[in-house]
Amino acid sequence: MLSVLIKKDLLLEFRSKEIVVSMAAFGISVIVLYALGFNASSEEFLKFSPGLLWMMFLFISVLGLHRSFSIEKEFDAFGLLLSAPVSRSDIFLSKWISSFLFLLMSQIIVLPIFFLFLNVSIPKGWLLCILVFLIADLGITAIGSLVSGVAMRVRMSEVILPILLFPLVTPLLISVVKCTHGLFNGLLFEEWKIWFQIMVTFVLVFGVTGYLIFDYVSEE
Amino acid sequence: MGKFHSKSIKLDIFNLQISIPVNKLLFVLIIVMFAFGLYLVLIVTRVDAEQQMAQKIFYFHVPSAWSMFLAYFLVLIAGIQYLRTQAEKWDRFGLASAEVGTLFCALVLITGPIWAIPIWGTPWSWEPRLTTTLILFLIYIGYFMLRQYGGDRKQIGRLSAIIGIIAFIDVPFIYFSINLWAESAQAHPQSDMGGQPTDVLGTFLFMLLTFTILLSYMIRYRMHVLKLDTKLTELEHGI
After folding, report:
1. Which of A54, A202, B190, B224 has the fewest other C-beta atoms within 10 Å?
2. B143 touches A: beta carbon within 8 Å
3. Cβ-defined contact of A150 to B163 (cutoff 8 Å)
4. Can you spell out the DSSP letters for chain A?
């Protein structure tokens, strides 16, 4: 059943392309604003780039998460989804996985432009880099899907979502910025291992919490 | 129904029937305890050799932080109970605890910088505990906004219970990561209470008790008002 739900989200996106395209377009605009606004040399930029990079990713994930949940509101698709013989926890998992994939796709578009425009050199340990990105994306979308599920039920959901999500996601943001800083500056894994561990724990805890609690989010 | 002082203690002294409402008694007790607490803080306890009078705010700052965490823990309990039972009293309990907790949260955020100005020369230095408190404050602003826009009462109760639970699960992550992040930040004034002289420790524990009683009184009072509020809405809508 889970695969059907994910397939539904992906199919909708492949037909309309509205989520990934808007996420990537927003990301690129933010990068251009960074480049023009900071006017910094590449050494100076290396210091701030991990933070700026992940703030941008956080902004675009809010955009994607909101869109991915508000689609369900149109024509009362969510109500129909709830009346289908689907476990509500599977709805959470499908939203988590599909928003993770959307974030990943837009990162693949945006990241090369970030490196190019801001003169940040591509880190050497790229395999580890990919792993860090995957885990951080899983974390953002885990808590993001849970909070979006809550925010979607109320008026002004587009305002409530970032207001609730940003403070809740701070531990993950700090950790991934520290990991990315380690990667960009070629530090040993041992030096930032603890931040990596925090990220993994965050993903596990909020993945499980979302899975268990989403039943109540989607109650009618 | 309309009165907060509903339960009473009945005394029988020399055949004279006296009934004292518990809440009124608690209210008087809190005032007396605060007055005595002020006496202890300002007159009995020693003046710290290094921090002088600035250290005294610690007797209000730390109990406020304790009350905040206790209140937010109660939001968690109320949230779990509400999701399990759907009983409205748990929603009222959760909301009342969240409101009172956020009030104490604001007190922590105000008293922290007041202490920091003379000691560190700057009101805000991203000290881990204060930063954690600030982030909790922001989460709870979102919590109240969610309640504001939440739709029908059952849905508001359910959604805010979920946010209350997530917020509490997030606290260890926030504290641990910010603590690690701000390793360079200054240490807090008092970390080892066990090694403190009796007058300092005694006053501190007394203030802790006073704040805890105040917290429970405020939550009870707020729950009472919320209950009246619900009744009023029901009457207005003719339910």
Report:
1. B190
2. yes
3. yes
4. -HHHHHHHHHHHHHHH-HHHHHHHHHHHHHHHHHHHHH---HHHHHHHHHHHHHHHHHHHHHHHHHHHHHHHHGGGHHHHHHHSS--HHHHHHHHHHHHHHHHHHHHHHHHHHHHHHTTPPPPS-HHHHHHHHHHHHHHHHHHHHHHHHHHHTSTTHHHHHHHHHHHHHHHHHHHHHHHHHHHHTT--HHHHHHHHHHHHHHHHHHHHHHHHHHHHHT--
Q: Does A153 touch chain B (CB under 8 A)?
A: yes
Q: Is the pLDDT of residue B19 over 90?
A: no
Question: What pLDDT was estimated at residue A162?
Answer: 94
| A212 reaches B (C-beta below 8 A) | no
Nearest Cβ partner of A153 from B138, B151, B177? Answer: B151
B-chain residues within 8 Å CB-CB of A195? Answer: 177, 180
First to last CA, chain A: 21
Place of tokens 């005394």: B11
With contact defined as beta carbons under 8 Å apart, do A171 and A201 qualify? no
Among A1-10, A27-36, A75-84, B113-122, which range has the highest average pLDDT? A27-36
Chain B nearest-CA residue for A201: B173
A101 CB neighbour count, 10 Å cutoff: 18
Angstrom distance (rounded) from CA A8 to CA B10? 67
Least confident of A163-167, A172-176, A200-204, B229-233: B229-233
Residue range B36-71, pLDDT digits in tens:
999 988 888 877 777 777 788 888 999 999 999 999
pLDDT digits over B92-101, tens only? Answer: 999 999 999 9
Q: Which two tokens stand for residue B20?
A: 């004292």
Give the minimum alpha-carbon distance from B166 to chain A in angstroms, rounded to a whole number.
8
Do B190 and B152 form a contact (C-beta atoms < 8 A)?
no
Beta bridge partners of B48: B52
Mean pLDDT of chain B: 86
In the DSSP assignment, the letter for residue B48 is B
| Structure ipTM | 0.89
Element spanning B25, H or E:
helix B22-39
- Which chain B residues are Cβ-neighbours of A167 within 8 angstroms? 135-136, 138-139, 142
Tell me if B146 and A194 make a contact (CB, 8 A cut-off).
no
What is the nearest CA distance from A56 to chain B, expressed in angstroms? 20
Which helix (DSSP H) or strand (DSSP E) does residue B115 occupy? helix B88-120
Res. A201: pLDDT tops 90 = yes
User: Is B159 in contact with A217 (Cβ distance < 8 A)?
Assistant: yes
* SS3 label, residue B46: coil
